[in-house]
């Protein structure tokens, strides 16, 4: 019987491999751009005609190749990158397999022009995997690759290609993702001679440059890290959701990728704030320890696999949850210059007010969920349930600040309704001597003073009588409070600034566990529940791992 098993020729193998890696012009260009990036390019230009079916050109200013490499790079499994790695597993994890150029060369007509710094360059012509010529050629350091007649020798594949305009759209989408992953490199894309994408090397502008300014409306920053995992980026508010995933951009270790695990974790971080078919917009850059990530689960390296799946899920979910509450907040004091922002985060400042999109079940929370563990001087140690904090976190609450926050809101609420607060008659009224100037403003704002709990009335020339006082202040501080209020009254002041002074002088209050729970509950329903009126943090949360390491 004649032998049935036949060894496939190299060109057939390359055509088969091409089918895996080079599905369409977009995937081909992606491979070429990855090579340009590996070559250390700072500028990469892509030109296409007919959606890439007719012509593709990628020009870079990277390290280029010498003559021998320019010929060798079309060999299957030819890669220069192996020598840079100590072991094969890290090589594979970076996705270097030396297959792309051999595959592309096998299914197209290709020209390569390349030169290394300070040498005469080389031009190679390769048709359907056969090298036809390799001549000296002069160009600046870098590489140009031109591909025409893609799939000319693979009719089956050619037949199933999308239209030129669909294919161009795929190329644009791919380039947006790649350019978000590599913000330090400038990219240009021209299609049929028309510029579609052009980016600067200013990384902080990248989102705006490729997705438009509008993308950043109603988004906020994420800034989170732990155990070598980092998450940075912007994410839309619960109101800024789409019905599909087209506005989701995930970049892990500088690769544009898709991960259903991350998608699910984001969804659960949003919890009940969004529906199950709502997709928040985001651009998230994540860093995962390289040995915890497998990029080679897919020929085009689009999907990734995490070695620590549960951890990854937990981290992403927590980062999103915490972003709703503990937003890095810049306190801008009048007359003070804002400090220069740190270079790392590079997004537009946007503020999203905390608005629970769910009803809190007050009784249930008080009775069961908020757990007061103990007190240390004026700090309480409590456990607060999700969605505010994740279960394993201990929350340290500064009770004086919590109290001032709640008082502040209560007074503000009352004043806005035109109501005053409770006052207690003083057994021995206090006499207050003031200047002529101050006398005028006190008379002008007598009503407001009464409403904030200072029962004051004129008592002869430049003299007033304090007859009643809110239990909020102690009598010995009232003179100080009035002095500060007078400073406000002499300028254009806001209700908030007045109340801030008042609550700063509230005497410390001993809270019972039950009082504390009520105050916490009241604060958690407010805007920015974690900040006192003076901008200071009321609660900080800790995870035992942060103190003691892993169990
Ligand atoms: P891999 O990227 O996995 O090494 P490729 O087939 O994509 O395999 O590329 C083969 C080799 O050709 C690379 O290892 C590199 O040495 C060289 N090469 C390809 N493109 C470029 C480029 N734009 N600039 C410099 N060298 C390149
Ligand atoms: Mg490559």
Task: Label this structure with key terms.
binds adenosine-5'-diphosphate; 24 strands; Heat Shock Protein 90; 18 helices; Ribosomal Protein S5, domain 2; eight-stranded mixed β-sheet; Ribosomal Protein S8, Chain: A, domain 1; alpha+beta; about 550 residues; single chain; binds magnesium ion; about 35% helix; five-stranded mixed β-sheet
Give your account of this protein's structure:
With 551 residues, this protein is an alpha+beta fold. Among the domains are: 10-198, Histidine kinase-like ATPase, C-terminal domain (Heat Shock Protein 90); 212-323, 2-Layer Sandwich (Ribosomal Protein S5, domain 2), CATH 3.30.230; 423-469 and 472-504, Ribosomal Protein S8, Chain: A, domain 1 (2-Layer Sandwich). The chain is 34% helix and 24% strand. The strands form six sheets. The protein has an eight-stranded mixed beta sheet with strand order 5-4-3-6-2-1-7-8. Strands 9-10-15-12-13 form a five-stranded mixed beta sheet, sandwiched between helices. Strands 18-19-20-24 form a four-stranded antiparallel beta sheet. β7 and β8 (194-198) form a beta hairpin. α1 (10-21) crosses α5 (100-106), α2 (25-38) runs parallel beside α7 (164-181) and α12 packs antiparallel against α16. Mean pLDDT is 81; it is low at 84-94, 327-334 and 336-360. Bound molecules: adenosine-5'-diphosphate and magnesium ion.
- Oligomer state equals single chain
CATH architecture of the domain at 10-198: 2-Layer Sandwich
Shape: elongated
Tell me the name of the CATH class of the domain at 10-198. Answer: Alpha Beta
Bound molecules: adenosine-5'-diphosphate, magnesium ion
Low-confidence spans = 84-94, 327-334, 336-360
């Amino acid at each position: 019987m004649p032998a049935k098993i036949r060894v496939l020729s190299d060109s057939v193998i390359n055509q088969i491999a091409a089918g895996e890696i080079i599905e369409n012009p977009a995937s081909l260009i992606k491979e070429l751009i990855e090579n340009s990036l590996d070559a250390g390019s700072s500028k990469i230009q892509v030109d296409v005609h007919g959606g890439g079916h007719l012509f593709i050109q990628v020009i870079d200013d990277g390290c280029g190749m010498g003559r021998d490499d320019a010929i060798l790079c079309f060999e299957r499994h030819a890669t220069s990158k192996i020598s840079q790695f100590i072991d094969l597993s890290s090589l594979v994890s970076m996705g270097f397999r030396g297959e792309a150029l051999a595959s592309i060369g096998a299914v197209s007509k290709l020209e390569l022009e390349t030169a290394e710094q300070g040498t005469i360059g080389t031009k190679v012509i390769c048709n359907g995997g056969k090298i036809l010529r390799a001549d000296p050629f002069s160009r600046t350091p870098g590489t140009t690759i031109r591909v025409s007649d893609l799939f000319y020798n693979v009719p089956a594949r050619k037949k199933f290609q999308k239209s030129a305009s669909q294919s161009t759209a795929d190329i644009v989408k791919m380039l947006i993702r790649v350019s978000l992953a590599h913000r330090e490199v400038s990219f240009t894309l021209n299609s049929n001679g028309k510029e579609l994408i052009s980016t600067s090397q200013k990384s902080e502008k990248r989102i705006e440059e490729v997705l438009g300014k509008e993308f950043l409306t109603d988004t906020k920053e994420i800034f989170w890290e732990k155990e070598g995992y980092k998450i940075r980026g912007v994410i839309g508010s619960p109101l800024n959701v789409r019905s599909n995933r087209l506005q989701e951009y995930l970049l892990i270790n500088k690769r544009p990728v898709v991960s259903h695990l991350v998608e699910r974790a984001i969804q659960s971080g949003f919890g009940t704030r969004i529906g199950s078919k709502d997709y928040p917009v985001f651009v998230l850059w994540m860093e995962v320890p390289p040995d915890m990530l497998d990029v080679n689960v897919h020929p085009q390296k689009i999907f990734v696999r995490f070695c620590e799946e549960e951890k990854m899920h937990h981290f992403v979910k927590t980062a999103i949850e915490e972003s709703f509450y503990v937003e890095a907040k810049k306190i801008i004091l009048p007359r003070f210059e804002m400090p220069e922002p740190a270079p790392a985060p590079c997004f537009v400042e946007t503020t999203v007010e905390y608005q629970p999109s769910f009803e809190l079940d007050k009784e249930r929370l008080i009775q069961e969920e908020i757990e007061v563990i103990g007190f240390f001087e004026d700090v309480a140690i409590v456990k607060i349930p999700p969605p505010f904090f994740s279960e394993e976190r201990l929350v340290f609450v500064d009770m004086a600040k919590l109290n001032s926050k709640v008082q502040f809101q209560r007074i503000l609420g009352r004043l806005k309704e035109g109501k005053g607060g409770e006052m207690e008659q003083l057994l021995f009224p206090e006499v207050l001597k003031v200047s002529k100037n101050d006398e005028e403003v006190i008379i002008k704002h007598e009503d407001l003073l009464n409403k904030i709990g200072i029962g004051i009335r004129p008592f002869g020339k430049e003299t007033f009588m304090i007859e009643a006082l809110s239990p909020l202040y102690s009598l010995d501080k009232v003179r100080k409070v009035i002095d500060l209020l007078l400073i406000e009254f002499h300028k254009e002041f806001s209700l908030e600034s007045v109340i801030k002074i008042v609550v700063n002088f509230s005497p410390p209050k001993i809270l019972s566990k039950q009082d504390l729970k009520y105050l916490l509950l009241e604060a958690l329903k407010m805007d920015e529940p974690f900040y006192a009126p003076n901008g200071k943090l009321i609660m900080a949360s800790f995870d035992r791992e942060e103190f003691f390491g892993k169990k």
